[in-house]
Amino acid sequence: MSARTAASRRTVLRGVALTSVAGLGLTACGRVEDKPAGLTEPVELGAETEVAAGSARLYPDHHVVVSRAEDGTLAAYSTICTHARCPADKLEETRLICPCHGSEFDVTTGRATREPAVAPLDRLSVEVRNGTIVAAPEA
Ligand code: FES
Predict the structure, then answer these.
(1) In this structure, how many other beta carbons lie within 10 angstroms of the beta carbon of residue 97?
(2) Which residues contact residue 118 at a Cβ distance below 8 angstroms, ignoring those fewer than 6 apart?
């Protein structure tokens, strides 16, 4: 086989592979349909005492992060990254980090603080019922 024939064959095979990936609805970081959708109904997250003033806590099973301001006010956001919908699963104090492309968010405001994400996290409603933090999609 000549060098030119081998190169052409590689080019064709690469094109077939890329076409197959695109046809399956894949992105650079996984299948689009495999990405979590976020909250669709209220969920009980845990005891109110789990989130101290000036801190935040991640609830990865529900893709939710809850922060508490110094005045005791709670805020909740979806942890689904607004760049390409990977679940952001690393929390350092009040900084949420997405593993897919490195976007970062401030979980006290939801604001994107590091690109590629530019849109804020989806805000959730949050309340305490009988000592339990409950988050829900905003109405
Ligand atoms: S999905 Fe790309 S940075 Fe989160």
Answers:
(1) 15
(2) 82, 112
Q: Which residue has the tokens 């970081």?
A: 29
Please report the pLDDT score of residue 33 as a whole number: 60
Minimum CA distance residue for ligand 1 atom 1: 84
Residue 121 burial by Cβ neighbours in a 10 Å radius (0-12, 13-18, 19+): buried
Buried b (16+ CB within 10 A) or exposed e, 24-46: eeeeebeeeeebeebbeeebebe
User: What 3-state class would DSSP assign to 3?
Assistant: helix
A 10 A CB-CB count for 114 gives 15
Determine the residue of 35, 86, 97 to mutate for testing ligand 1's pocket, defined as the one with the most ligand atoms within 8 A of the Cβ atom.
86
Q: What is the pTM of this model?
A: 0.79
Q: Is the CB of 112 under 6 A from ligand 1?
A: no
Residue type for position 5: T
Atom of ligand 1 nearest to the CA of 81: 4
Asked whether the predicted pLDDT for residue 3 surpasses 80, the reply is no
